[in-house]
Amino acid sequence: FVNKFTALSNIYHEIEGLTKADNLVLKKSCEYIIENDALRVDPEAVFADGGVLGLFRSEIKECISILEEHGYLHVAQNLGNDGDGYSCHYQVTHHGLSHYAESYIPDYYVILDNVIRLIVNGSAHNNVSIQEKMNIPIVIINYILDSLASRDHIKLSKTTSGRVQIYNLSV
Questions:
Q1: Is the dihedral of CA 81, 85, 90, 96 positive or negative?
Q2: How far apart are CA 145 and CA 139, in angstroms?
Q3: How far is CA 73 from CA 98, 104, 119, 127, 151, in A?
Q4: Nearest to 154 by CA among 107, 106, 115
Q5: Which DSSP string do the residues of 66-118 spell out, in sequence order?
Q6: Is 24 left (phi over 0), alpha (psi -120 to 50) or beta?
Q7: Distance CA 147, CA 101 (A)
Q8: How many angstroms separate the CA atoms of 54 and 104, rounded?
Q9: Residue 114 CB partners (closer than 8 Å, separation 6+)
Q10: Are 125 and 101 in contact (CB under 8 A)?
Q11: pLDDT recorded at residue 52
Q12: Which of 5, 22, 57, 85 has the fewest CB atoms below 10 angstroms from its CB?
């Protein structure tokens, strides 16, 4: 199922307010967390020397900084600076994943409607059951559940194992 969401990695859509370089760094970061079911991005693992995006390491570092300033990433600096290294790791924020999903996930709103239907009809009570029924990456499911919870449509209980239980549905 991951291939459906990342097979379009050579497609580019403008995200308003971002330069092309910033957009590409956000896109690649989101693809990484989806493909690897990761919470955190290590830019060394994703971008190496920058050749993946046709950008220099210094340009990618600047993009990471700009994306953090605009709320797309939450960056944690590593202790010590290893010279030319990225010296950080980061998480894609809810805001960042929202812009990625709306721009790059085919039929995102259809997926959202289907997740809501499963919850409302009582066919799914947690993120794992939704994943089994819809065959979409858990990162996307968790993002949708967090979005619904932030709007007080549902309440969530999260475990350290990554399971997210849905309760207290508010129509």
A1: positive
A2: 10
A3: 12, 17, 29, 23, 21
A4: 115
A5: HHHHTTSEEEEEPSS--TTS--EEEEE-HHHHHHHHHHHSTTHHHHHHHHHHH
A6: alpha
A7: 12
A8: 20
A9: 134
A10: no
A11: 72
A12: 85
156-to-38, 127, 146 alpha-carbon distances in Å: 20, 10, 8
**Are 88 and 76 spatial neighbours (Cβ–Cβ below 8 Å)?**
yes
Q: How is residue 112 written in tokens?
A: 């959202």
Residues 6+ apart with CB under 8 A from 51: none
By residue count, the chain amounts to 171
pLDDT in tens, the chain (171 residues): 445 555 455 677 888 889 999 999 999 999 999 999 998 999 988 998 767 788 888 899 999 999 999 999 999 987 665 566 688 899 999 999 999 999 999 899 999 999 999 999 988 999 999 999 999 999 999 999 999 999 999 999 999 988 999 998 886
Q: Which residue has the tokens 């600076």?
A: 81
Q: How many CA atoms lie within 13 Å of 123's alpha carbon, on the beta-carbon side?
A: 11
